[in-house]
Amino acid sequence: MSGRPEILFPLFSEVEALQGVGPKTAQNFAQMAIETPRDLLFLLPYSVVDRRTRATVKGVDLPAVVTVEVTIGEHRAARNRGGAYRILVTDAEIDFQLVFFHGRSRYLESQVPEGARRVVSGKVELFDGLAQMVHPDHMVPLDEAAEIPEFEPVYSLTQGLTQKTICKSVRSALARLPELEEWIDPAQMAKENWQQWHRSVVNAHQPNGLDDLDARSPSRARLAYDELFAHQLTLALARQTERKARGISSIGNGRLQASVLAALPYKPTAAQSRAIAEIATDLGSGKRMNRLLQGDVGSGKTLVAFMALLVVVEAEGQGVMMAPTEILARQHLDGLRPLAEDAGVVLELLTGRDKGAERRAKLAALERGDIHILVGTHAVFQQDVVFHDLRLAIVDEQHRFGVRQRMELAEKGQGADVLVMTATPIPRSLALAQYGDMDISTLDEKPPGRKPVKTAVISTERMEEVISHLRQAIAQGRQSYWVCPLVEESEVMDLTAAEDRFKRLRAVLGEGIVGLVHGQMPAAEKDAAMAAFQAGDTSVLVATTVIEVGVNVPNASIMVIERAEIFGLAQLHQLRGRVGRGSAESTCLLMYQAPLKESGRKRLEILRETEDGFVIAETDLQMRGAGDMIGTAQSGLPRFQIADLERQAGLMAVAQSDARALLTTDPALESPRGRAARVLLWLMRQDRAIRLISVG
Ligand code: ADP
Ligand code: MG
């Protein structure tokens, strides 16, 4: 199938092909990202207006939308320009008025002559004790009353569009709806009581009351499932393609691993050993690995990653580990290098900072195979970085990168096995949406001896107390992070807040005790500040959220977060994870600016109650919504128009297993159901999947 199936053509024409849509309306639609009838149909009404006819306005709780049969009475033209044109009307019980501004009397007299019977529908309100309907939405002779829908859908609008226009265009789009073959598993259809696609789209746009707007209503649930299924099918196709691609089999001899483990002051946890074994199996198989290592902050992912890298080095290949920030890349280097050197493994760092001759020398060594493991930022995937024999690519803190970037990485790796690591525990539905194409290893256990972090929620009004507490802690040799708020999205504002706080703390705590690190600092200064803190030369590190991911200073036992109420829960959890890594009791102070809203208080309370990243993540999702939680744009999380990831987690899981099952029995999508699924992929604009099935 090289192009869009013909049966979908009517849905992919220009919107101007719809009745009542001219260039102006088309422009308005474009502002809402509606470019085709298909897009319009995926915009579902968010409310309905009850326009069922009643006998009288009498007794109705006003203001309210009322539909009623009336006899037209006297017309009273406006007394002055801009005045109201009034028509007295009588329903079964009482009199009221229809009111028109700028009403043209000739037109109104011909449309609703005195003595005529009409059905009128519109919002009735009391004005000076009189019931009146200003500019009725509908005003039709009795024999046309059926034209007024009992329940009129309400759409979200952009400037310049009216409900009337949108309803009319939707009706015209519905008239083009093709009947499509079913792509959903018949058992699933029956179990959920779903109707065929065509019927479901119509129902969704012609709700019969508020219940039909519920995400759980059969029509909406089915359309949501279509979205999830199309997405999972894309991921499953990607997974199938990747596994088909011949991977490289890397089998280690265990020599380097054993030597490193012997040098470690601790033993791997059971969870770490399990993950290391799962990865080694993948590396040794001829299939290409595409695996996610998920583990809460501090669960020890770095060791697992290093063991995996050692397998490929033992097999005489190379590995690369990419971190999202310079600080993290450098930290990996500092942490791993001593271990690597003892084992005779050559580890090198490459970041955007490497320039000129030094960079060229590193690249040459890499190409010769003299560097075994390359650690760095995204710079490691620049065009001119060539490996001698790359076997394994690891991406740390994957949540900073999107699905698309990850797939690109896999493509660049030319058959290399891929391991991505994330410290952001995410709810199952989101994990499936984001990582549905991968296999997952989970570190569900933390290294022993971790003490819980004492978490307190306090107002910024108590800043002085906090500072004096800090002074005592410093005297005891403890170290502390002080995180400044993310003010709006602006790095510059971030900076001022952090710099001001730095100056103030330096003034009260003393010169040389306080360090500062933020994203816009020159690289060398950043390193120096981190190194000084790591070495214990400074006791307090004032920082923006650059320290959010991965930074590891075990002696730091206090985390102060200013304006905690404006951070995301997952982010706060990450930040708190920076302490509680050593043997000392740790404290996390979440400072808020009073007054704190009820919802804000609730969110911070959760952090006080639990350190379980998964519980925190689920709560965050419930309270904020999926897009907000990960920041859709940066997460690469697909944007679902109808599906609701918070409430339809179950459907996502079904979609994944169904998509994988379909591909197992019909890998090329050639059965009748497979062909129907292809149409779905086109309908849902799943370009990537379409590319995969076109070549496959
Ligand atoms: P994360 O999963 O957040 O990346 P790290 O890999 O940075 O965690 O590990 C956190 C800390 O725990 C490090 O100081 C590391 O040396 C230590 N660590 C890792 N594994 C173990 C273990 N099995 N026992 C004790 N400490 C460990
Ligand atoms: Mg880490």
TrEMBL record:
Per the UniProt entry, the Enzyme Commission number(s) are 5.6.2.4
GO molecular function term, any single one: hydrolase activity
Taxonomy-wise, where does this protein's organism fall, top ranks first? Bacteria, Pseudomonadati, Pseudomonadota, Alphaproteobacteria, Rhodobacterales
Q: Write down what this protein is called.
A: ATP-dependent DNA helicase RecG
Q: Per UniProt, which keywords does this protein have? A: ATP-binding, DNA damage, DNA recombination, DNA repair, DNA-binding, Helicase, Hydrolase, Isomerase, Nucleotide-binding
Can you tell me which family this protein belongs to? Belongs to the helicase family. RecG subfamily.
For this protein, the record's InterPro entries field holds: ATP-dep_DNA_helicase_RecG (IPR004609), DEAD/DEAH_box_helicase_dom (IPR011545), Helicase_ATP-bd (IPR014001), Helicase_C-like (IPR001650), NA-bd_OB-fold (IPR012340), P-loop_NTPase (IPR027417), RecG/Mfd (IPR047112), RecG_dom3_C (IPR045562)
Q: Which reaction does it catalyse?
A: ATP + H2O = ADP + phosphate + H(+); Couples ATP hydrolysis with the unwinding of duplex DNA by translocating in the 3'-5' direction
Positions of the Helicase ATP-binding domain: 282-443
- Might you name a Gene Ontology BP term for this protein? DNA recombination
The chain positions of domain Helicase C-terminal read 462-622
Q: Any signal peptide, and if so, which residues? A: none
Instruction: Identify the species of origin.
Output: Parasedimentitalea psychrophila
**Per the record's keyword annotation, is Cytoplasm included, yes or no?**
no
Its job: Plays a critical role in recombination and DNA repair. Helps process Holliday junction intermediates to mature products by catalyzing branch migration. Has replication fork regression activity, unwinds stalled or blocked replication forks to make a HJ that can be resolved. Has a DNA unwinding activity characteristic of a DNA helicase with 3'-5' polarity.
